[in-house]
Amino acid sequence: GLSEKLGLLDRGHDRVEAQETCGTVYEANLRECLYPTARKQSYLLWTYDHYKLLNKVSNVIPFYRKMSEAAKGWDGIVLRRAQLRLERYQKGEKLDDFFQALMEDKSGHPHNLEWGEIVAEINIMMNAGSVTTAIALANILYQLLLNPAAMQLLRQELDSVLDPDEVVAPYDKVKHLPYLRACLDESLRLWPPTPQGLGRQTPPEGSTIMGQYIPGNTSVSVSALVAHRDESIYPEAEKFIPERFLGDKGKELQSHFITFSAGARGCIGRNISYLEQAVCLASVVHRYEFALPVGFELKREETMNHILGPMPVKVWRRDLGEQE
């Protein structure tokens, strides 16, 4: 998006530069800042009509005040990234990234965006899909550890296409692996990172949904968490069964699979999320062994997203000598 790495892994911490509107630069913890605004809104209410007032009033409570303070750090991080990338652009640096596309068309004609629009777009670039993909990856690893037979089948599939010394699985090698994709889809079905459905609006004349008339211009939504537990579509819906997404039956289920929503307003990051999940999961499952504490149960906090609690996992290298 911005042709820049934050370098968190290289530095071993998540402190990054942030910037106040006056130009003062300071450090903020990215992970603490990333999600508190949406989390706070989820706790208070979902309508924007009253949120501005409730947001201010709720700050008298330390629990909510901490979220507001952390959210300011995120605003500063985004502002700093926007400022640095804009400076590179103004110096004439041409880069093949989303920012370049924001600033001008393919012919080089400027779009003349206002500064506030630029910052808002960079906020989306840095925020959208980051938390949800991380949640999805933690969920699938957890499900595989609870279901060792599925883990074994996935490893067999991965070992058949990946070399022992491959640290990062090449996407071209794993993008069409059926069991890998089935594991991803089954985990996304069972625990969609965003439990509530993206909203839609009924047409002005209203609409009849499941036999119930809904007036026009009404916001409607269906929870993927609920829809994916329909036993008539997903038998044994509470169980992790990747095989349900294999073959022709699996293709039929895709019309009922709404983790990324559906239709023209579905998640535009669907394909890149699958790419990230496939490469990351294939890489770690092929290369490492994992173990959870006996009796461990993953905790989930339902906000706008399903925020996960700590997951203490023991990790060690697999012995891949037999593959060589």
Description:
InterPro entries: Cyt_P450, Cyt_P450_CS, Cyt_P450_E_grp-I, Cyt_P450_sf, Cytochrome_P450_monoxygenase. Its cofactor is heme. Belongs to the cytochrome P450 family. Heme binds at residue 267. It comes from Fusarium sarcochroum. With 324 residues, this protein is mostly helical. The chain has 2 domains: 8-127, no CATH class; 130-323, Cytochrome p450 (Orthogonal Bundle). 46% of the residues lie in helices and 10% in strands. It contains 14 helices and 10 strands. It has helices at 8-11, 30-33, 36-44, 51-58, 62-90, 98-103, 115-127, 130-146, 148-159, 171-174, 178-190, 224-227, 247-253, 270-287; strands at residues 15-19, 25-29, 200-201, 207-209, 212-214, 219-220, 288-291, 300-302, 306-308, 314-317. The chain has a two-stranded antiparallel sheet with strand order 1-2. Strand 1 and strand 2 (25-29) form a beta hairpin. Helix 5 crosses helix 7 (115-127), helix 8 (130-146) crosses helix 11 (178-190) and helix 8 packs across helix 14 (270-287). It is globular, with a radius of gyration of 22 Å.
